[in-house]
Amino acid sequence: MDTFIAPTDRADLLRTAVNQAVDFLRDGEVVALPAETVYGLAADAMNPAAVARIFEAKERPSFDPLIVHLPHRKRLADVAVVPAEIAETVNLLIEKFWPGPLTLVLPKHESVPEAVTGGLPTVAVRMSSHPVFKAVVTSFGGPLAAPSANRFGRISPTSAGAVMKELEGRIPLILDGGACPEGLESTIIRIIPSEKGKPVFRILRAGPVTKDDLQPYGKIEWGNGQPDKKGQVAPPEVPGQLPSHYAPRTPLRLVENPDHFLPEEGKRYALLSYRGDAEDGYLDLTEWEHVLVLSPGSGKLPEAALRLFHCLRALDELEVDEIIAEPVPLREVGMAIMERLRRASYL
Ligand code: TXA
Ligand code: MG
To answer: Which architecture characterizes domain 252-344 according to CATH?
Structure first.
């Protein structure tokens, strides 16, 4: 199969690309398209054969459930049954964060195929704010199942070129919406009602919507598989969030303390630095063959988040012996960055 990249950077091109995508989706095919987080591989969520095409293209194990993307807030009831005791909270979160990078895990509606939820009684659901994603899902008019558009266990793509490298020959079409503005997959939460006071939000996957963003509406709890205060990760509780995920081919090691890095004679190293300054000691550790900086402009976490997967891919292509990653602060979206780095790290 030939894989085509459709540009969307002019109104007429966007229209053509959206029509093409919707034709494929109605035919039960898969299409890659940009979300504000990462590129997704979409299919008609209500068509089990189309959903099976996602698993096939990604070589994804069938127990790993997919996220369902809605065309409109009002369509939530088509895919989920919201329990009365959390209805008010769900409405509040939807009002505040949708469309945007927050995924809610809710009891599933019986009409959602088992293939989407991996046989679970729950469904993960969100609404993307990316204009191209919105145009496609609105024109399609129904829910789209869309995991990240990478082969299973590999780095999520944040550009059309990266999707091409992952899935060329396996899918018919990639809509090119440029680089993804967030650069990390959505935050996933489960809402646990509480008898008194605010509900509990269990964060199953850290992402662009941070603990601080959610705190006004509920009590935050970190799910297993998320870093604790010391940054240690317990085994995941979410299916598919395997300990080794987001992995480049080149071994990556997250070095928490620069004093712990001792280069081996004859080995070639590349450094993934947070801000590129020597102050923290990482730049001075060795004669790095390559250095990529996560936040060269602002020196802040959102820039680091949007460049993380792009930099990991670029470093992977250098074919050095080892990528050394320097930690970022464990606050705001830094929590999500560190979670990805820990999973990518072989130690
Ligand atoms: O930003 C994103 O969320 C992107 C874009 C394309 O929307 N999608 C994405 O999908 O990251 P994916 O398949 O790479 O991650 C989906 C993850 C699963 O691996 C699993 O951890 C979790 O969502 N998940 C899905 N359904 C679930 C459920 N019913 N209960 C708990 N976790 C679930
Ligand atoms: Mg993924």
So the answer is: 3-Layer(aba) Sandwich (3.40)
3-class SS of residue 213: helix
Domain range annotation of the chain:
4-79+109-176, 252-344
More confident residue, 225 or 321: 321
Tokens 């898969």 sit at which residue? 30
For 4-79+109-176, CATH gives: 3.90.870.10
Q: Do domains 4-79+109-176 and 252-344 have the same CATH topology?
A: no
153 CB near ligand 1 (under 6 Å): no
Helix (H, G, I), strand (E, B) or coil at 233: strand
Contacts 24+ apart (CB under 8 A), 216-221: 217/89, 217/92, 217/93, 217/96, 218/89, 218/191, 219/194, 221/192
Q: Is 105 in the pocket of ligand 1 (CB under 6 A)?
A: yes
pTM beyond 0.85: the answer is yes
Residues with CB under 5 A from ligand 2 (ion): 148
Which residues are CB-neighbours of 159 under 8 A, at least 6 positions away?
39, 178, 179, 180, 310
Cβ–Cβ under 8 Å, residues 39 and 149? yes
Q: How far, in Å, CA of 12 to CA of 22, rounded?
A: 15
pLDDT tens column, 249-268: 899 999 988 888 999 999 99
Q: For residue 330, give every residue at least 6 positions away whose Cβ sits within 8 Å of its Cβ, in sequence order, or none.
A: 227, 229, 231, 338
Secondary-structure breakdown of the chain: helix, strand, coil percentages, each rounded to the nearest 5: 30, 20, 45
- With the most atoms of ligand 1 within 8 angstroms of its CB, the residue from 134, 137, 188 to mutate is 188
The burial of 72, by beta-carbon neighbours within 10 Å (0-12 exposed, 13-18 middle, 19 or more buried), is given as: middle
Q: 138 falls in which pLDDT band (50, 70, 90)? A: very high
Q: What is the mean pLDDT of residues 179-208?
A: 95
Residue 243: band (very low, low, confident or very high) from pLDDT cuts 50, 70, 90: low
pLDDT tens-digit map of 55-76 = 999 999 999 999 999 999 999 9
* Cβ-based neighbour number of residue 296 at 10 Å: 13
